[in-house]
């Protein structure tokens, strides 16, 4: 217990000396020396980014200064839109107008359609109309470039090849299909 008593007595002496001792001014450069010995903490990139995002900001603008900026932005968007658009003509093959004619001076037919490879052989897609002046059934159709086989379907039953077609092809079922050649600008007949 003596050692403990000596320790307590020594603490009391130190406390008394501090309390009663003369007050001294710290050295002038004490703060600078302490700060120089401290190492700066460098937060991680993630912490700096998070702090930057969470920091409140004040945005102010005057409408008079925003109008020219918005006008310029709209003009640039319009320019980008116009320069990136392709002409509609370049989006696919050019269609050519082809005229199908079946002469019928005596008007034996009541209904005539053109069926062919260009309309999946469907009569309802290419119904012809009768011209009294020409005394013929007529249809103008827009066809893509290439060769197209076709027939006239008379009264919904009778298949008739085009008598004016310069070329025909055997369809494998005993019929002769007429052929029209289209090059993208107009009909070609060979």
Poorly predicted sequence stretches spanning 5 or more consecutive residues: none
Total strand segments? 9
Q: What global shape is seen?
A: rod-shaped
**H and E order:** HHHHEEEEEEEEE
Total helical segments:
4
**Main sheet overview:** 6 strands, antiparallel
Mean pLDDT level:
86
Quick summary of this structure?
With 190 residues, the protein is α+β, with helices and mostly antiparallel strands. The protein has 4 helices and 9 strands. It has helices spanning 2-20, 30-37, 45-54, 63-84; strands at residues 96-103, 112-116, 129-131, 136-143, 146-154, 158-160, 167-170, 176-182, 187-188.
Secondary structure layout:
Blueprint (H helix, E strand, L loop, with lengths): L1 H19 L9 H8 L7 H10 L8 H22 L11 E8 L8 E5 L12 E3 L4 E8 L2 E9 L3 E3 L6 E4 L5 E7 L4 E2 L2
Antiparallel strand pairs: 1-4, 2-5, 3-4, 5-6, 5-8, 7-8, 8-9
């Amino acid at each position: 217990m003596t050692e403990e008593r000596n320790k307590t007595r020594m603490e009391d002496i130190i406390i008394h000396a501090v309390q009663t001792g003369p007050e001294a001014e710290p050295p002038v450069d004490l703060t600078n020396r302490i700060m120089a010995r401290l190492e700066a903490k460098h937060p991680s990139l993630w912490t700096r980014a998070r702090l930057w995002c969470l920091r409140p900001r004040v945005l102010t603008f005057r409408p008079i200064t925003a109008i020219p900026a918005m006008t310029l932005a709209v003009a640039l968007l319009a320019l980008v839109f116009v320069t990136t658009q392709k002409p509609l003509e370049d989006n696919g093959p050019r269609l050519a107008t082809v005229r199908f004619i079946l002469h019928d001076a005596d008007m034996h037919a009541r209904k005539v359609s053109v069926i062919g490879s260009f309309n999946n052989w469907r009569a309802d897609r290419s119904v012809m109309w009768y011209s009294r002046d020409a005394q013929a059934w007529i249809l103008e159709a827009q066809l893509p470039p290439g060769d197209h086989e076709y027939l006239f379907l008379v009264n919904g039953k009778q298949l008739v090849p085009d008598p004016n077609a310069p070329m025909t092809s055997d369809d494998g079922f005993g019929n002769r299909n007429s052929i029209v050649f289209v090059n993208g600008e107009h009909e070609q007949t060979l």
